[in-house]
Design a protein that fits this description.
about 425 residues; mainly beta; 7-stranded antiparallel sheet; 7-stranded mixed sheet; 21 strands; about 50% strand
Length: about 425
């Protein structure tokens, strides 16, 4: 079932329970007792005949791997129904797993249907017919394998993706007993080999080689190695060199969302199925450096090497990379800027340096994937006990061999008697 279709709520039963006043008498026909007045007898809501809560038994919901590789996350728990009256009769009792997508910039600000789309992921039906429950706690187990293609929970400046368990029971007197518990769904990508990227900067001979980790985490630092070749252009008598004056890096977070309109306000965006694109970019980390690199102008083409540590700034509440069919997408980039200056010097005396006044800005962007830490990285299917067909063969049994009595000379026991003494 597609989780991004709007969820239709079930109709409520027509039978209603009479409300109870402060003195316990039922109010009928809108008439009040002569002894009561709005100022002296405020209305008191009747106590619920039962209440619910959820006890989770499964570990946190974490998708290990990307959308195509993840086998999902296993959800299991107990839905507890605690009856406070002597007994209660339930007509229906069910629970839904909902995916709630909210845009913070809807087409119509005052329209809740433009701002929030709720869809049903899964449904549990605990009763097929009316049942009477006595006073006490009654448990109903539930489980569901959540597919790994679903987007993770996200709460950004443009929109949110949330999951929740919503339980609802209807009594014979048409009382609604509800309970909602939010679910946090995360995605963790495994750590792979470092990636190496090359950037060229024409019309110069400069070439930058940058080594980066494949993924980064919201908490923690990561190393960045960079080497710049082609810093020296040697002539017959003089040489031209490029020297780094300043380097700064930053991590940008790019968010975008498509705010779709409801059927009532679809005319504002040109019809149903269309929406408005909103984008937002913020810096979640950065630093400026004026030293920390090693320059080697004596090599054949000139070389500059540096290694620095980058991280996301604490307290900025970064989002992990996500892409959902609702139009919400979050990506990250590492931006490195180098300010270099040109200088001349004679080949015979390289210490006699003359700046030319020419400067350039070398700007590089690298895609960074922000994901949660995978920990041990054990998916639900790897934690299961082996199936019967996967159990290896038992150890070999003892083969039946023929046994015969010994008829030879008796063994000498003198040495054994000597040891006993």
């Amino acid at each position: 079932m597609d989780i991004f279709h709007h969820h239709n709520k079930d109709a409520h039963p027509k039978e209603k329970r009479q409300s109870l006043g402060l003195n316990g008498r039922s109010s009928t026909g809108g008439k009040s007792s002569p002894m009561s007045s709005p100022m002296s007898s405020p209305q008191v809501s009747a106590a619920r005949p039962a209440k619910m809560n959820i006890e989770m038994e499964s570990p946190p919901l974490v998708f290990y791997g990307n959308v195509t590789q993840s086998t999902g996350a296993l959800l299991s728990g107990q839905l507890n129904l605690t009856v406070t009256d002597s007994e209660v009769k339930l007509q229906t009792f069910e629970m839904h797993m909902l995916a709630i997508c909210t845009t913070k910039k809807p087409v119509e600000k005052s329209c809740p249907e433009c701002a929030t789309k709720s869809s049903e992921v899964y449904k549990w039906t605990f009763l097929n017919e009316p049942v009477v429950f006595k006073k006490g706690t009654h448990s109903f187990p539930f489980s569901y394998l959540m597919p790994g293609r679903y987007p993770a929970t996200s709460n950004g400046a443009l929109g949110t993706i949330e999951y929740a368990l919503s339980a609802r029971a209807v009594t014979s007197l048409s009382d609604n007993i509800t309970f909602t518990r939010p679910l946090k769904v995360q995605r963790a990508l495994p750590l792979g080999n470092d990636k190496s990227s090359i950037r060229v900067f024409p019309p110069t001979n400069l070439t930058a080689t940058v080594g980066l980790p494949p993924i980064i985490h919201p908490i923690g630092a990561f190393p960045v190695q960079m080497r710049i070749d082609g810093c020296v252009d040697r002539g017959k008598d003089t040489q031209t060199r490029w020297r780094i004056r300043k380097m700064n890096w930053r991590i940008d977070e790019h968010s975008k969302i498509i705010s779709a309109a409801c059927a009532k306000h679809a005319h504002k965006v040109g019809g149903e199925g269309k929406g408005i694109l909103h984008q937002d970019t913020r810096a979640i980390g950065g630093e400026e450096m004026r030293e920390g690199w090693k320059t080697d102008f004596d090599s054949p083409s000139g070389q500059i090497e540096m290694e620095f540590t980058a991280s996301i700034k604490p307290g900025v509440n970064p989002l992990c990379d996500v892409e959902s069919p609702t139009g919400l997408a979050v990506t990250h980039n590492l931006v490195i800027e180098l300010i270099i200056s040109e200088e001349h010097c004679p080949n015979k005396n390289t210490k006699l340096v003359n700046p030319t006044g020419v400067a350039r800005v070398l700007r590089m962007q690298f895609t960074m994937v922000v994901t949660e830490r995978s920990g041990m990285g054990i998916s639900w299917d790897e934690e299961m006990p082996p199936m019967y067909e996967d159990v290896p063969l038992s150890p070999p049994g003892y083969q039946k061999m023929g046994m015969e009595d010994y008829e030879g000379e008796p063994f000498p026991y003198e040495e054994l008697d000597r040891l006993r003494r």
